[in-house]
Write a structure and sequence with these properties.
alpha/beta; Rossmann fold; 2 domains; 8-stranded mixed beta sheet; 3-stranded antiparallel beta sheet; 32% helix
Amino acid sequence: MKAEQAEPARIVVLISGSGSNFQAIAEACQKKEIDGDIVGVISNRPGVMGLDRAAQFDIPSVVIDHTEFSSREEFDGKLIHEIDQFGPDLVVLAGFMRILTPDFVRRYKGRLINIHPSLLPKYKGLHTHQRALEAGDKEHGVTVHFVSEDLDGGPNVIQAVVPVLDDDNEGSLKTRVQQQEHVIYPIAVKWFVEGRISMLKGDAYFDNQPLPESGVQLTS
């Protein structure tokens, strides 16, 4: 990826549900805030709202129902085939609820990013908001990171820090974190297509300088 390329970057988004982060990125592309086009959306679940959002943006979508495959490797092989039909510069995981095989991750190394609702490396996996509340954390948030072969691993690009309020419950905290998801994911995609972020030897770089473990950190 080079910032001076003439053609907009080609972006493929993988979803499993409502697709709200996909919509945030699509709107930023539509407004030319991102010099890129989402050329395809792929869902591992049929009938989800994210597919309706793709139709509203007139973006081609594909459903690959993971329940129809006998193994993770077989599913990922089909997923790779469909992604490569779009010729992407960047693959974006936007609420894609699948653990990816090492072969898949290696194929898109350095051009595969994910968003996770915690301040990674804290709270990898599920139920992050409840875990933050149970731990009595004063801060929670969301992270965009390059994907590595480790679950919710890979170097962080950007985080948004969200204060945990005294009267927060899981739902209220989740709502405020999601608001920040829709802010930082388009920023990360913009930086990638501009050639400002990259992954080198397992570390994230911004403007050719190594990022700290947190990545760029924004406080809401």
